[in-house]
Amino acid sequence: MTTTHHPRPAVSADVPSVPLTTEGYSVLHQMMRLRRSAWRSLPDAEKSVIAKEAADVLARMETHDSSSGQSALYSLIGHKGDLMLIHFRASFADLNQAELTLANLRLSDYLEPTTSYLSIIELGLYESTLKIYKELADQGIEPHSDQWKAEIACKLGRHQEAMRPRLFPEIPPARYACFYPMDRRRGEQKNWYTLPLEERARQMNEHGLVGRRYAGEVKQIITGSIGFDDWEWGVDLFADDPLVFKKLIYEMRFDEVSAVYAQFGQFYVGVRVPAAALEKLIRGEIPK
Fold first, then answer.
1. What pLDDT sits at residue 106?
2. Would 221 disulfide with which of 5, 7, 90, 236, CB 3.0-4.6 Å?
């Protein structure tokens, strides 16, 4: 059996090298450490009052609302922190409000931030970009002109509406979450950003095929952070079996785009904890 390969549309050299993207929820990850010695010094009754106040607020925040977003709490595994909070919100201002709401809780007196990560859910449109740029070039529309910008805005608007469930999702209810930031290499010998758009599209398509093979086992959410944080993208993986994180990421390392061009930051793995179980968690119990 022969496989038919459909050539990607070529784009002229004078069109932009930047792939188009559509964006959804704004995202904030907060990693925190519990100041256990200070916490242990409190009377048990006061601990319960403080924990209940925080649990009530987090319970409201963990309820998903498609217009306003959602938060989720995780117990971090390892030395990088004790708690991880993931917030999905409609805007950066809403993320800041979530951050301030938590900072005003009495529990925050006993939490020390270890790191955080700011980004926005992003769908990279390599294939669509090539098609759109070629269509506009064939129509004789000047790159970066007002007409060019209007046509692209219209097409991206339609795409965002079609992809709304992926751009504004519920935080997956899986038991485990894995978060890590990443970059594309910009070294002296290998530089992702100097590759032609068509070549980047080819490599990203092959990379995506691996992820799709794990579709029933893991949920992946990619966020863009260029201009927002120290890395270029953030990756969240959600699964009921954490072993799938290792298998998926290891297999992806053999793709050209990862093997040659990827750089990774620290990994954070946590266990999902309902807000109602916050006091048990602080006491040292993971809910089953």
1. 98
2. 236
